[in-house]
Amino acid sequence: MSDTPRLLPLLSAIAVITLAFGGGVWMSIHQAARTDGTQVEGLLWPDPPSLPSFHLMDHQERPFTLEQLRGRWSMIFFGFTHCPDVCPTTLQTLADADRQLRSNPDYAQHGQVVFVSVDPERDNPNLLKDYVSYFSPEFLGVTGGQEELKLLARALGVLFMKVEQAGTEYTMDHSAGIFFVSPSGRLVSVMTPPHSSAAVVGRFQAISRFIADQS
Question: How far is it, in rounded angstroms, from Cα 16 to Cα 40?
């Protein structure tokens, strides 16, 4: 008997996991209408999820909690400093977008980029500081215990896992989405790869204007 029928569920599961790691577990694109009738792509509306309380630490060894997100626009990306390609590429894209958005008064005063390391075993505060500072002195590097990382990751729809390699080496598989969190601590948009600075800037401008129109 052929093994093909038995392989189909496994192949389907692998496909789902691959998609999830690519952009988080948000599998659909939402749109909301602005008051002027135009559409805002990728906006989670009308009920964007609130983030739960969590306790992490930034690269200055200061507590990083939900309070550090409140009152600010945050663009959050999950990764690790030993990442060979996706993380540095995405952080450079975010650095370019961050520089462009500094001319936006709302973002200049209340915007931040947060890099959350899912590899606390290797990514200590000093290493995180050097890593994020390479891309921008304004970036925040954040990590913490596995349970607290998973708490925030679940709230944002992020998956990550440790993958053993030869000897004692390992890498981390992780979602590669960019997550936009509003000053009220709600996840309002998710961008899946591939990313560009122009797309990031456009997404922020669209969602920030939309939410301002609702207030």
Answer: 26
